[in-house]
Amino acid sequence: IDELLTEGVAGKRIFVRADLNVPLDGGTITDDGRIRAVLPTVKALADAGARVVVASHLGRPKGAPDAAFSLAPAAARMGELLGTDVAFATDTVGDSARSTVAGLTDGQVAVIENLRFNAGETAKDDAERGAFADQLAELADVYVGDGFGAVHRKHASVFDLPARLPHAAGHLIATEVGVLKKLTEDVKRPYVVALGGSKVSDKLAVIDQLLGKADRLLIGGGMVFTFLKAKGYEVGASLLQEDQIPVVQEYIERARKNGVELVLPVDVVTSTEFPDLKTKAPGHPHTVAADAIPADQLGLDIGPETRKLYASKLADAATVFWNGPMGVFEHPDYAEGTKAVAQALLDSPAFTVVGGGDSAAAVRLLGFDENAFGHISTGGGASLEYLEGKTLPGLAALED
Ligand code: 3PG
Fold first, then answer.
1. What percentage of the chain's residues is helix, strand, coil (to nearest 5)?
2. Can you tell me which residues the record assigns to a coiled coil (predicted)?
3. CA-closest residue to ligand 1 atom 3
4. Which of 54, 235, 325, 400 gives a 20 to 30 Å CA spacing to 249?
């Protein structure tokens, strides 16, 4: 983007592909981190006199307009944060988008409606995606990719559109890639990774990579129970992916062979029922040893001994990557594990990267100062796939 700004963007229509996929409660944004993350790019372009057209997906609508997934609240929030009026087009490539963009003056910003209201955005068929990208290309003179959270998606606005316009990477993508490179090239050791989240199946590829890269792997979240079962423990009514047990057993074996310390909880917080996240009514938490989970209990967080253990395993790290909450942090009875890992990261002198929408939101919702962390990535799947060493369509499209 610096080169683009040097060349001059005044009067040009610049399409900024952002990731404004923010969590919403009704029409209220509960975490605006992703909107704030793209502001440096939007501001730099607007200040230089560009006519900025911001586009994004939100949620997973089914290729047609759906009010529940409108970007209107995100556009309003962007206006508040920029301290200026941000125009909003109520469609993506229709009359509203065309007239909104045509009405922009130099330095003005518009947000167009959710890209995924058009089936062409996510189509598997190249021609269908290409046709939608052709329509998007009519709205702009230059493309700036800055939606890091979506660069792993081979979607029209991420992959096909940059091929149709002069293109550049925005500040956010440049920062994210710069940070993640530190984890893949010449990482400072000990390199400790804390992985949480509910399903082990979402993390298989990254665990596979990390078994050849990390010095220590701390496991939390719902996927703990597939690991415990793979070690032969009973896990009661906890979340379990039976079909992944053989894979996990192979990982445990490979960690041993490679000298990677694979650390599992020694105790867990359980209850007979999943907590009510809306009312936050008190749960009925118990702490039990990880090898003695009663048949009627389900595990919802790592226990107090595990929190201490994980904090000690993070204390001497030089580099830490954390992805995924340690428990059901949205409920106060099961938030302590996630809090303990966040606190351990803050206490450690290590270079820390927090990746993943959920862990980033957890850090903010639990009241931690996000600026105190080395880097909070806006990408969940994107940061994991980067660490897996995959070619990400949205980055590849910007590289040529
Ligand atoms: C995310 O939330 O990880 C990104 O916005 C991508 O969203 P998606 O998984 O719906 O493609």
1. 45, 15, 40
2. none
3. 380
4. 325
- The C-alpha atoms of residue 206 and residue 209 are separated, in whole angstroms, by 5
Name the closest-CA residue to atom 9, ligand 1.
Answer: 381
At which residue do the structure tokens 């100062």 appear? 369
58 is in an annotated binding site: yes
DSSP assignments along 118-167, one per residue: SHHHH-SSHHHHHHHHHHHHTT-SEEEE--GGGTTS--IIIIISGGGS-E
How much is the pLDDT for 366?
Answer: 86
Task: Output the ligand 1 site: residues, CB below 6 A.
Answer: 19, 21, 60, 149-150, 153, 357, 380-381
**Residue 21 annotated as binding?**
yes
Q: Split the chain (400 residues) into runs of 10 and give each run's mean pLDDT.
A: 95 98 90 94 98 97 96 98 97 98 98 98 98 98 97 98 97 95 91 90 88 94 96 96 95 96 98 92 94 97 98 96 93 95 92 83 84 87 89 93
Select from 31, 153, 172 the residue to mutate for testing ligand 1; criterion: most ligand atoms less than 8 Å from CB.
153
Catalytic residue positions, numbered:
34, 199, 357, 381
The ligand 1 atom nearest the CA atom of 155: 11
